[in-house]
Amino acid sequence: MQNWTDKLIQEYAEGKRQLNKLHKKLNSEVPEESEKRKIVSGMIEDMDFVIEWLETGRQPGIMRGVDKRSIYQKHSLESMDIIPDIAEQLTANDKPLSIPAEQKKVLIEILSSFSLRERQCYILHVAQGLSMQEIAEEIGLKKRTVQQYIDRAKKKVEQMVP
């Protein structure tokens, strides 16, 4: 359930980790490496800038613009017809499940408020019925970490659903 910005954020974060490793290896006492270190520092700052822009949906440092952290997720979820796909899978006795537009909006709002990991863990646990251990093995996290993501997601659901 990743959208294009989630993938880009992960790629930029991985690139930034690699640059940080290189930055630590370079010795600032050696003139050649000192110059390379300055260039790598600039690249790390640029990565931070892009990551913040992708996460917030607005240019860093600009006070006007989109204020919602999950703007790309929200647009992606609204443009995808995710709810009817779920409805088709949950048909009982050949009677399709229908969700009113208002409830669909609430569901989109809830899903877009989750971080990528919260969304992955919550959907795997609640919708697909996987245990926390199965999710941990599937995603490559510790069971406790998965539990924390699910707990955070459940709290967000409780806050948004009256």
From TrEMBL:
Domain RNA polymerase sigma factor 70 region 4 type: 107-156
InterPro entries: RNA_pol_sigma70_r4_t2, RNA_pol_sigma_r3/r4-like, WH-like_DNA-bd_sf
GO BP: any one term: DNA-templated transcription initiation
Source organism superkingdom: Bacteria
A UniProt-annotated Pfam family: Sigma70_r4_2
Gene3D superfamilies: Winged helix-like DNA-binding domain superfamily/Winged helix DNA-binding domain
GO MF terms, alphabetically ordered: DNA binding; sigma factor activity
Name by which UniProt lists this protein: Positive control factor
Source species taxonomy: Bacteria, Bacillati, Bacillota, Bacilli, Bacillales
